[in-house]
Write the structure tokens for this entry.
Amino acid sequence: MKKIYSLCILLVALTFSSKAQNIILNEDFEDTTTYVNIIITTPSGNDTTWIDADLDGLADQSGGSRPNEWFITRGFADVDSTNTVMASNSWTLDPTAVANYLILPPIHLNDASGMFYWKSAPRQTPRYLDGFQVLLSTTQNFDNNFTDTLKLYAEFLSGDSSSSFANYTFSNGFVFGSDGQWLEDNGDSARWIGILRPDSASLAGYAGQTIYLAFCHGTVDDNLLSIDDIKVTGSGTVLAFTPSDNNFSLSTFPNPASDKFTIQYSLPSTGTVNLSVFDVTGKKVKTILNNMCVKGDYSYDVNINDLPGGNYNVVLKTLQGESVSKITKM
């Protein structure tokens, strides 16, 4: 009887653990050829891919030629130097806050079991500490749709080069390192290096809804911020574009279209992608993309209000070849 009871306890525990750890989305950025389909662009409202949006347009002033948006790099602290992370720069010498959004694909939550996990670390703290927000939208993925704040991290506002956090002024939110944890000593106690620190937020209040999650780096002229190990667990589904069985595919819809149409394609390997629209004479009338893209599945909304009615060819050129899809503008 004792053995049966013990087995029942074990089965219950395993069942509970399995439900609690059901992974909806998991990204550690380690495989840089397949990690995520991050598209550097502005949101179109209903994107089904990751979006990396530089909404401020402020140039880097650090002298390090850092990108304006979120970018792949190595972790800042020695202990994190073997980790690939997403980083965002705020060193701009400008009184305007940067607005860099790293937006996840939409996720539908079936019930109240949802949890959101991530790790973050600033390049330095307390002086020039970068702050950011973890945001949620229940509608679309435009920046003004992210009305719910799941977590707020403070940024440096003013202070001297003291080693005491109490001698600095910060914005509202959690002050990274103020509890003496997740810090690497680099010999400058006014500029501790942040170690990737785990954090989480419950998504229980969004049961039955489709949500967008985003990291907004919105700080004024500080330094660098990093994000890693993003995970969503619970019962739900990532509503991402599902490609056809063909490894190299292109589709456009609706057809015919009036003001805009959607392009979806699958890229079997990382490489240069040229995506353009041509009229029936072969003249290029719109360049949608001419950039390096990682392996994965992509979706774009294309505004065609500026094109006259008629027939057009959408042409996708990659290292794998060329694919054409016809579209009619009403």
User: Anything to note?
Assistant: The longest strand covers residues 224-233. The radius of gyration is 23 Å. The chain has two domains: 16-238, 249-329.
